[in-house]
Structures are given as C-alpha cells and as structure tokens.
Amino acid sequence: MKNLDHKDPNQILNFIKKLENAVDQPLLDLERREDVKIKIRVDEKVPPAMFKPDPLIPNGYIANLLTIRAMRPDLFVFSDSMEDLSAIHHCACGKEIDIQFWKICPYCARSFNL
Fold first, then answer.
1. Over the stretch 87-107, which tens digit does the pLDDT of each residue have?
2. How many beta carbons lie within 10 A of that of residue 67, not counting itself?
3. Which of 18, 42, 55, 96 is the most buried (most CB within 10 A)?
C-alpha cells in the first residue's frame, strides 16, 4: 500500500483486485460492479469539502465550486469501509485530507506534494 499512487485509478483498481478474504478468495466481486454517475450543482453556500442533497434535482447534490474542482472524477465506493485505501495528508492550511477522494485540497486549493 505504501507504493500505491493514489492519483492513479488504475493502480487503485489493481490493488482492489488483489484483495482476498480469509479463505484466499477474492474479497470483492468486480464483475457485479455498478458504475454510477452523480449530478452535482454549484452552490457557494455549501461549506468546503461538503455535499448536500440538491433540492431541485432528485438524487443530485450541491457543493461549492472549489469542492467540485477538488474532487476526483473516479471514486471506488464499497458497501463496507475500505480503510486500506485511505491516504491521509496534512495540508498546509491545517486540514486533514484523505487524498483517495481529492485532487487538490478542497479547503484552500493547494496541490498535494506527495
């Protein structure tokens, strides 16, 4: 996990494919995966790094522009917690950021020097 490039979705997917359960079987059934597209609209009243349900678009969300710019376009979401993919970065602005979700800091727009 230390050598995993969290900026590269292909490396993350390859890491996920290698995960096994206690009886050496694949932990996840990637054949049954589901690609989901989320609609997100800009609303500058939403605080940084937060998403709120969109009152106008069913199943949509609102977020401020910096949050939308900062988020990764490809996220891997599981029904269970996947803390193995977590990569905490302490930004110069004082915020703790999990870079598996962000391209830049969603609070101050600084890029990550990894």
1. 889 999 999 998 888 999 999
2. 22
3. 42
